[in-house]
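Chapter review: from sequence to fold.
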Amino acid sequence: MEFARLIFAGILISLLSNRVAAMAADLPPCKFKAIYNFGDSNSDTGAISAAIFPRQWPNGETFFRKPAGRVCDGRLIIDFIAERLGLPLLSSYLDSIGSNFRHGANFAAGGSTIVPQNKTIAESGLSPFALNVQIFQFDQFKARTSDLYKEKKKHSCRIQVLPRSKEFGDALYVVDIGQNDIAYGLRTVGDAQLLASIPDIITQLVLAVQNLHTQGARTFWIHNTGPIGCLPSTLLTITNPPPGFLDNHGCVKSQNDIAQEFNRQLKSRVVKLRTDLPHAAITYVDIYAAKYGLISSSKQHGFVEARKICCGYHKNGIDVGCGGILALPNGTQISGPSCEDPSTYISWDGVHYTEAANHWIASHLINGSFSDPPIPITHACYTTS
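The C-alpha cell string follows.
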C-alpha cells in the first residue's frame, strides 16, 4: 500500500511539473525591472565590505580581477540570477561609492540572521544587519526614492541611478537567509532547543515577506537553507567520528537533519503564504537539494573532493583564513592563499562556494529544476492558482 501511495505521489508531482512547464512555455517571460535581494554572505555583494571591513585579495580574483565585496573568487548565485534576467549586477545598499540602483538594490550582508541577535559582533561573529534591519533599509530606500522623484527638477542628476516608484511592483524579490541562524544555534544551544526555535525563526521571515507585500512586492523567490553539515569548515574539525555521525557523503548527519527540518517548515509556511497573499507569485527554491546534489557527486561534475578548500590554510592545527597571514613564534609567516584553479573546487574558503560551484547551482535553480512550483525564474511572476 505504501509503495502504491509513493507511485501515485510521483505521478501527481510529474503531472503538476508538466502543467507548470507547459504554462511557462505558453506565456511570455516576465518583464522584471529590478531585483531586490535580502540575505547573508551567500548573496552579499558589498555590504560588509563597505560598512565594516573590505574584502581582501584573493577574493574576486577569477571574475572581477580584484576584491568586489563578495566572499568568493567571482560571482555569486544572485549575480547569475541578475545576468539571466538581463539586469546589471546588484550594488549593495550600504555601498555609497559608485553604486547604481536603477535596476534594484542588494540589502544582503555577510553574517546576517533572520532573528536579530542581542550580542555584539565580537561576541557572536554575526552582523547587525538582521533581516528586519534589511527590511527597514528597503522601506527607507523606497520612501526616499519616491520623495526624490517628486522633486525631480531639483534632483535630476541623483534620480538617474534610482528606480522609478511604479517599478517596485515589477521587481523580483529574492530572500536567501537562514544559514547563520542555524549555524549560530549549533554553536550556542543544544539541538533540541534549536529545533524548538525554528517556528519562530520562520515566522520572522514570513513577516518580512508580508511587509514587502504591503510595500507593493508581488514576485518572491525564496531560497531554503543549504546542507550546513557538509561545510568543510565544520568537517575539518572532526576527528574519528563515531559510526553514523557522518552520512554516506561525509556530511554531519545531525546538522543536515536540522537544516532539512528548517526547510520542511519553511516550505509549509510558503504554501500557506500563497493562500494568504493570493495575488503574489511565491516560489520556494530548494537550494539544499541543488547544493547537496553537487556535493554528493562532485567528481562526476569535474570538481575535486567536496570537502577540500580552495582558499585558506588549515593544516596541523593551524587555521589561516582566505587572504589572511599568521605570524608564528619562530618568525615564519603562513598565508591563506587560493588554489591554482578555483574552477575545480566547490568550496572557496570552507563556508562559501566558488564561482564555478555557484554557476552550477544557479543554472539548476534558474531553470526551475529545484523550485516549487517547478517554473524557471524568467516566469516566476505568474501565479499557479
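Two observations follow directly from the output. Strands lie at 34-39, 104-106, 171-176, 219-223, 281-285, 313-315, 318-320, 325-327, 333-335, 371-372. The two ends are 31 Å apart (CA to CA).
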